Amino acid sequence: LCRYHHIWNIDLRFRPAFLGAIMQATGNQPPGMLPKRNDYMLKDIKRMGKYYQVPIKATPEHLQRLLGKVPLSLGAMRFITAIDMTQPLFLEAVSRGFWIRFWSQHEDINQPASILSVAARTGLSSEQAQKLLEMVSSPAVKNRLRATTDDAMKYGAFGMPAIVAHFNEEQHLFFGCDRIELLASIIGEKWLGPVPS
Asked: In whole angstroms, how large is the CA radius of gyration of the chain?
């Protein structure tokens, strides 16, 4: 969608949401819980990365970490929420920075040092990043993340990525990164492939 938001007539808005809470509330389970699906996912993630030209690297160990009890992204999601509340121009860049760190480099995105590292790479000053990091544990940020997560579930989200298109006074929920072509057909835009020129 980031590749298309200057091509299509759309207003793209990122809404941070906490996947763990969505999965728990909807009774959904990670696909990697099924051994055969886990094996398939490893192959499919590589194919999708190549097709979409994104540097994703999935290993069995990395997927197993995703299934653990410790939330791997809550700190990042709260930091992104604080950015959404105070520095929204950085939202896309910081979100991408966390994605690269987690999915390409297999590095932590939850600890303060990790969060500050992403912030520095995306152009936030150390002073801005420190103030945002201090907001992470505030009731305002926690409540905002809870609210956006609840909103996602009200639209029908049961996992991520969840895309909600508001078109012709209707809301259309799409689940997964492979539904962009279908989204295009609903909103009357042309799909130009995964990497439009």
From this structure: 17
